[in-house]
Amino acid sequence: MGARGRLEKVGKGDPGVGDVTVLKESAWVLTLFWVACGAVVGWLVTLLAEWLVTLSWAPLRGPAELLTSVPEPWLTIGSVAVGAAVGLVVGFIAVHESLSVCVSDGRVVLGVRDSSQEFGRDEIALAVRDGKQLVLLGPDGMEVAREECHLSWTRLADAFAAHGFRWADEDPHREEFRRWVPGMPGLPVGADALLRARAAAREKDEGAADARELRGELLGLGVVVRDEKERQYWRVPPRS
Questions:
Q1: Local confidence band at 153 (pLDDT 50, 70, 90 cut-offs)
Q2: HSE on the CB side for 57, CA within 13 Å?
Q3: Which band of pLDDT confidence, cut at 50, 70 and 90, is reported for residue 9?
């Protein structure tokens, strides 16, 4: 339970689907967590401002003096309220970006950002934890999905196993990935240009959607991509 997610057994839905296990983060707990964090930060800002004005010279001394000119208790109340409001916005964004996983005997549905992806049992050979990401691998070794995940990994593993899916705590293909550098050999035609574009997209604040789309185009060329900090790594599964 809580911000790490909750596990639910849902009764039969569509014919042939059977029981469905749903794992998702609690929206209200996640939102309250960020509201509380924002309120604490707002309170700490008042303490920092009061400390800065005691120094003969300090960065942001002017804004600190302006802030501390507000009489108490309104200074603390206002700072905490503003911090909580910012936390509320962050909480709504976190809920929107959070991943939900629905597993049944016949399929897996991943939901994120008001959209969902559905995969049949025959499309999934292995469900994998790769760092903070959930990865679904197909029978040919290609990735069919890779999503940022903050759910309980133990509960995820139990959910997949309960419905007969194979689970791994580490990507079995991890050693096959090679670090990408522009112009390196071994990539299919057009993949290097897509990786260049994706590297540029990842450097932008609003480039997440572009990077996600380019990942899909690379998969279409038979190239699997994983990120590690600012670096891109790639592999090409052998063709059967």
A1: very high
A2: 0
A3: very low
Q: Are 63 and 48 in contact (CB under 8 A)?
A: no
Mean pLDDT of 149-153: 91
* Main-chain phi, psi angles of 42, to 5 degrees: -60, -40
Domains and CATH numbers, the chain: 2-25+98-168 (2.30.29), 28-96 (no CATH), 174-235 (no CATH)
The alpha-helical segments, DSSP class H, found in the chain are 27-52, 61-68, 74-97, 153-162, 191-202, 208-220
Q: Cα(144)–Cα(136) distance, rounded to whole angstroms?
A: 6
Report d(CA 40, CA 44) in Å as an integer: 6
pLDDT category of residue 95 using cuts at 50, 70 and 90: low
State the pTM of this model: 0.72
> Would you say 146 and 226 are in contact if contact means Cβ atoms under 8 Å apart?
yes
Pick the range with the lowest mean pLDDT from 63-77, 135-149, 160-174, 197-211.
Answer: 63-77
Residue 142 is given by DSSP the state -
Q: What are phi and psi of 152, to 5 degrees?
A: -70, 120
Q: Are 158 and 23 in contact (CB under 8 A)?
A: no
- What is 148-193 written as a DSSP string? E--S-HHHHHHHHHHTT--EESS-TTGGG-EE--TT-TTPPTTHHH
Q: Which of 106, 107, 182, 113 has its CA nearest to residue 147?
A: 113
